[in-house]
Design goal:
The chain is of the alpha/beta class. It folds into two domains: 62 residues, Alpha-Beta Plaits, CATH 3.30.70; 251 residues, TIM Barrel, CATH 3.20.20.70. It is built from ten helices and 14 strands. Strands 7-8-9-10-11-12-13-14 form an eight-stranded parallel β-barrel, surrounded by six helices. Strands 2-3-1-4 form a four-stranded antiparallel sheet, with helices on one face. The protein has a two-stranded antiparallel sheet with strand order 5-6. Helix 5 links the parallel strand 10 and strand 11. The chain is elongated, with a radius of gyration of 21 Å. It starts with a strand and ends in a 5-residue tail after the last helix. Bound molecules: phosphoenolpyruvate and manganese (II) ion. Manganese (II) ion (MN) binds next to loops.
């Protein structure tokens, strides 16, 4: 439930409600809008039964959150969230680009990529250390060594590091080396992993499940937020449909849908979304046109030699062209690059 305050409500009115909620063992999430303040009530709303909240000074009305997810909904927080990561952020005016190889393959590869990305003005590097591969015979990642190489890349360039964690047992290790924890599509409904990531206060990129509805995806975000971690960036990465030409069907309509339903930022991964490098630039342009807050792009110095996902990886030249495209489009959609 949210408490919508009158535009004439005073700071003291708001404080009084916060104090009342605290006495009832409930949390208050204050959203200060241009016009009015909205107070999201956190916790079991049955504790409010019989409490005449609507009669309190400054209160306009009480609005129930009808969606099954609460903290993630736009009713709970009308203004869009900006997720701060180091000196950077995702969800504000500035578009975020997270780029790098599917998998960290070795020192030379990741440092070369990191230096290139830095020279292009990119702020985030991605790279898998633990890879959730469909076949157990495919390259599974360098594991902790991969995290260490990513941390080295950050030290040498200042880039922020995004990498996937596939199991709760690797969370402490990940927290030592990386800046943003990625929850992959295959783990979007690994509820224990979601809960434990919620207890770590690190920012999270939460990818949409291979066959998940938008509602299931927002409920997955809710699992993390319920534990107190509100630093979530949603990532659309395509869903399974009957189409086989592309690896997945990149559901770009989820971008404006998520913007309507939630205050969380959303980025798009056209690499896994299409599985084909030739489609990454056009779908990136479309994603930014649709209102995405950024992109996650797989790239490699030599995609033909990549140990995983070469066919969808851009080489440096193609990545440079993509960055030019996005810079131009950012001006049209009123975003910065
Ligand atoms: C990835 O980003 O490396 C990845 C495995 O993506 P997804 O979980 O979307 O398949
Ligand atoms: Mn990949």
């Amino acid at each position: 439930m949210v408490i919508v305050m009158k535009s004439t409500a005073t700071k003291e009115d708001i404080k009084q409600i916060e104090r009342l909620l605290e006495r009832l063992d409930l949390g208050a999430h204050i959203s200060t809008g241009m016009e009015r303040t909205i107070i999201g009530v956190i916790g079991d709303k049955r504790l409010l039964e019989g409490v005449p909240l609507e009669l309190m000074s400054g209160v306009d009305k009480l609005v129930p959150i009808v969606e099954p997810y609460k903290l993630a909904s736009r009713t709970f927080q009308p203004e869009s969230s900006i997720i701060r990561i180091g000196n950077s952020s995702i969800g504000g005016e500035k578009l975020a680009v997270i780029a790098g190889p599917c998998a960290v393959e070795g020192e030379e590869q990741i440092i070369e990529i990191a230096k290139y990305l830095k020279s292009m003005g990119v702020e985030f590097i991605r790279g898998g250390a633990y890879k959730p591969r469909t076949s157990p015979y495919s390259f599974q990642g360098l594991e902790e060594e991969g995290f260490k190489l990513l941390a080295q890349a950050r030290e040498e360039t200042g880039l922020l590091v995004v990498s996937e964690v596939i199991s709760t047992e690797f969370l402490d290790q990940a927290a030592k080396y990386i800046d943003v924890i990625q929850i992959g599509a295959r783990n979007m409904q690994n509820f224990q992993l979601l809960r434990e990531v919620g207890r770590l206060k690190k920012p999270v990129v939460l990818k949409r499940g291979l066959a998940s509805t938008i509602e299931e995806w927002l409920n997955a975000a809710e699992y993390i937020m319920k534990e107190g971690n509100y630093n979530i960036i949603l990532c659309e990465r395509g869903i399974r449909t009957f189409e086989t030409y592309t690896r997945n069907t990149l559901d770009l309509s989820s971008v404006p849908v998520v913007k309507e339903l939630s205050h969380l930022p959303i980025i798009v991964d056209p690499s896994h979304g299409t599985g084909r490098s030739s489609l990454v630039r056009p779908m990136s342009r479309a994603a930014i046109g649709a209102g995405a807050d950024g992109l996650m792009i797989e790239m490699h110095p030599n995609p033909k030699l990549a140990l995983s996902d070469g066919p969808q990886s851009l080489d440096f030249k193609e990545f440079g062209l993509l960055m030019e495209d996005i810079k131009r489009i950012s001006q049209v959609v009123g975003r910065e690059m």
